[in-house]
Structure formats: structure tokens, C-alpha cells
Amino acid sequence: MFSFRYLFILTFYYLVNNAISFRCDRRPYGSNTQASEPDGRFKLEVLGAENNAYIPEQLYVVQLRETDDESSFTSFMISAEGDVKQDPRNPRRMIPLYPGELRPQNSATAKFSDRCLYSVEHAMSSHKTSVEVYWQAPSSGNGCVTLRAMVAVNNEVWFEDGGPLTQKLCEDMRQPDDVAPQLNYKCGVCDEAKYELTFTGIWSRNTHPYLYPENDWVPKYSDLVGASHNADYILWMPGTLASDGFKDLAEHANSSSLEAEIREKIGDGVRTLIKGKGHGYRKMNIPTYSFFRADKENHLFSAAVAFHPSPDWFLGVTRFDLCSEDNTWLVERELNLYPWDAGTDSGISYESPNIQTFPQDAVARVEMSSYDRNSPFYEVDIKDMHPFGKFHIKLIRTYHRDCEEEEPTEEPPATEAPETSEESAEASEETNPEPAAPSRYQTQLDSAGDRR
To answer: What is the pTM of this model?
Structure first.
């Protein structure tokens, strides 16, 4: 019995160690020697990765090269190893996390390895001074990834791991502007707030020239549509399925069905319908304005703008919290916007034919740094990409409310909709009978608690 238990423990630790170290036979074909310690002649680099961090799902170029301007190598292997974590269903078992995908950049110099998972190796044993391969970083939540290189001068002299031949990168936890901040579930602000939301389009032939539609009168933005709401309401969110109304917005730049869905929820999770006028030819960069209300219960807002033509792509923010941790209203914020995919159409370019996604996918970020040359995001680094639009959020005024004060009955939530659901203005127009320009640019405190 003792020997069986001892054997089990040894086997367990062997498997765990195997999972952690993720080793396979990476020695050069035909070699019978052991690896030498790296001597600095060769170096592995991840181009564009800053501070030993990777952006989830970003495409990187991994380069293996000589450092002394005279050395060369005949064979190589580059491998990606993911972190491990405990299996939540069996704490004694370790499970590996996905390390992303290594892929040959040039089929004449590299190929997928037949010997090792998540690895690329030489296609020909010829002398070379450098080689480059692609690495698609894993999605968010996969922790750190270690990239290791084996490089062989010949069958007898080869190096692996350690020092300049190993790169460990961890997920960059910084979020793009259009990712919502943490929610304040204990919002204690008593006063109500009125906000101005401005959308300004940036997408153009100058900023995003690759595969931009040839006919300048074709591109346009849909109406701006959104809502101020409570923490239980979801207009759209990554990882969820788009509603029928949202599908219409994303695929056809038609907001009417989505507006109807929002109106049905006024008083049941929604405070205000947000609506702004869409723009097209020669007006793409003209700002669109809309106003909305927020209160202690409904202190989040979500909004979206589709851009056309596209398969099902849109810009927006979701569940953005206006109530700060110190229980004050956010005063002002500008957000750069990048494309999201509604998960309902599988087209890869702006003017791709309609290809229904079946079954429907969840909402997700549009695939950046695509391998496909037919994609407008072919080999695009998200850090270098121009935003497609901007949201500018500005506090216009607050309405004093005592915390003990009961919710007034003379103004049901539904009356908020007309305030901002009418077509919003262009730069020179007003969207509702609010006081003139000063209220658009200055925060006014009304201690009298006037309620319109």
C-alpha cells in the first residue's frame, strides 16, 4: 500500500512538472550532444512588446537573430508556453493556460513543428542570420506566456532557453478607453445629474486608408443610440449575444428597432433614452450631441454607433459608470472608440457580402492584426491604430436631492425619453429646450432642485 501511494505521488509530481515545464525534444535533427549555455551570440525578441507585456489578441512579430554581425545558424525552434493554474474542479490537478499561436511568416524559412505543441521550426537547414515568425497573443485572462528559442549553429553546437533566448511576457492590464471602468455598486450620490454626450466621427480615407470604401458617399455613421440605466440593465456587452434590435443597428445602421427595445425598458432599468443624429457624406466628422439624466439608481450609461458599410461592426461603450468611488459625479471624460463585432455577420471587410454567422457569436472586439489581407486590420497594431470615433462626456448641471427624499411621483421615468430621444443637434443646433450655450459648456448647480 505504501509503495503504491509513493508511486502515485511520484507520478503526480512528474505530470505537474511536465505541465509546468512543457518540455519536448527540441534538439536539432540528428544531434547527439547536449545544449550549450547561451553565449550571447543569438537573441530572441518580441517586436513591439513594451515593458515585458502583451496586449491580448494582438499580433506580434517574434525575431530570432544574431547579435555580433558575423554568426549564423542553420536550424531553430521557437515555442510558446503558457502559465498553469489549479483546476477548480480538482485542486490537485494543474491545467495549462493557452499561450497564443505561433505561426510561420515565410513558408520558405519556417513551418509548424511536428514535434512540439505551440512551436515553429526551420523549414530548411540553410545558414541564416535572422528569422521572424508571428505570435498571436492569447485572449485576456491567460496570464503570462514564455517564449523560448532553440538555435543551432550545426548538429554539434546548439543553444536553448535562458538569458537572451527566453522572453516572458504578461498581460498588459491597461484597458482601451472604450472599456468601461469598475462599477460602483454602492453609489451614494444624492443629487441627480444631467450630461451631454458628444460623438465625433474620425473614420476616413485619411485616417484608415486600407480598404476604405472607394465611393466617398457610401460611408456613414448610424444614429447614436443608448440609455442611462441601472446595474441590472444590459444594452450590449462583450461575451453576450446581441439583441435583434442591436443586430439591425450593427448590420444595417438602422436604429429604430433598438430604440423600441430601449423604450420598453424605461422605468424598468432604463432612465433615459439617448439619441443622436447620424452623419454621412461630407458630414462624417461633424459632432452629434445628446443629453441624458442620471441618478443614484441609474448611474450607468451605454451607447453605440454603427459605421456603414461593415459586416456588423460598431463603436460604443457599455455600462460606463458616472458615479465615482468618492460618490461624486464624473465631471468630464473623453473616450477613444475602436470597432466591436456584434457576432451576427462573418464578413471580414467593410464591403464584404452578407454572411450570416450561425450560430450567432457573442459580441467581441473586432479581430485586430488579422492574418487575412482582405481585412482592413491586416497586421495592424492596435497601439498604432487611429480611433474610429470619440465620445466626450460632460456634466452639464446637477439637481439637488436630499438623500432621505422619496422618489417624486409627478415625473415618471418615461418622461425622460423625450428630452434626449428627439434627433440631437449638429454643432450649431440645440437638442432640447435647455438654456443656451453656457449650459453646454459649464456645469451649473441648481440648489432649488428644478426638474424639467
So the answer is: 0.64
